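Q&A FORM
Asked by: J.P.
Topic: structure of Short chain enoyl-CoA hydratase /enoyl-CoA hydratase

PROVIDED:
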Amino acid sequence: MPEVISLRTDAVLTITLDRPRSMNALTESCRRELLTALHGAADPAVRAVVLTGAGRAFCVGQDLSATDELVRADVTVRDTYNPLVRALKELDKPVIAAVNGPAVGAGTGLALACDLRLMAETAYFACSFSKVGLVPDTGLSHELVRSLGHARAYELAATGRTIGAAEAAQWGLVNRVVPLEALAKEAGDLAGQLSRGPGLALALTKRLFTAAAHAGGDTMLEREALSQGVAAATAEHTEGVAAFREKRAANHDRGPVTVPATVPLDAI
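REPLIED BY: S.T.
REPLY: Here is the structure written out as tokens.
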């Protein structure tokens, strides 16, 4: 049975972790399937992605019953967790996490690796690695410190306490908190809106914002200039200006989004 389900509706691909009995805990096979699904999202027909979980959880992280996977934990993380974060960050289209329930450990990491996050009122985050004598992975050391600063990030990692939806929104970890019954529709509507937007401009913006987490101000000024030069020469820009002048909604091409090789993609 597949452990990850991909379903495309128009230009939106919804990827669902489908191990509800284990609250979508991650085994190696599940991680491999998720990586394959994320690579599949590069399909030109896909212009936005939603990542969510089946059942009552988003993802509770590593399946601790798979004890063999932690014998060489460094290899497991390097070979099967890190590629997931890179795939989410490097995908040249918006990725929305629809956090429908608990997102624990690597589940929190997957959610924070997405570009946007909608969270059910009943969901929560927990950086719970310390409770089993482990350290944060799946990009959490970077994302939490960047988002919250050292003190708050360290508190969450050291105590493993849960962060409810309201607190997550207050701290800027999620974009919006919605009732659970409205989550799928709101995520789908947002993804649909983004899928109808200027695909190349959104891809270039994602690359700029990803690079900004690592690069200095002068480097980012040059990257912005380079990206703007590419964007301004596209039909997307021409149509956007025309729509603005004519006071109508822009009608962007639904064709494939290809970022020119002259625009660098930083290693994550």
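FOLLOW-UP: The chain is about 45% helix and 15% strand.
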